[in-house]
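Supplementary Note 3. Input sequence used for the single-chain structure prediction.
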Amino acid sequence: MLVLFGILVILSSLILGLIVLVQNPKGGGLSGTFGGVGNQLMGVKQTTDVLEKGTWIFAGIVGLLCVLSPLFIPKSEGASSKNDELINRAPASVPSTNQNTVPLPGASTDSPKSK
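The predicted structure, written as discrete structure tokens, is reproduced below.
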């Protein structure tokens, strides 16, 4: 079911992207793209209305699918018990510092008391 939601989200996102790219930001849109052919078929006003409605519809579909898809993620029964077991087995003590460490390059080995 999750794969179906993924495919639907990708498909509707691609269609939404194409609808947005077809629109002209100055208002010409699809009617000016085909040299007036859109003018003869649907009219300039209807072309922009259809594209605007399509943009809102596909944006709503993408949003709705993204909100609903987590509801279909299968919940595993032992997930929380596995996490609790790992937390209980984790070491609780702070690791001890090793006294045989190599000093960093450029660090002085003189202690401040000897100066």
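The chain has a mean pLDDT of 75. The first helix runs from residue 2 to 22.
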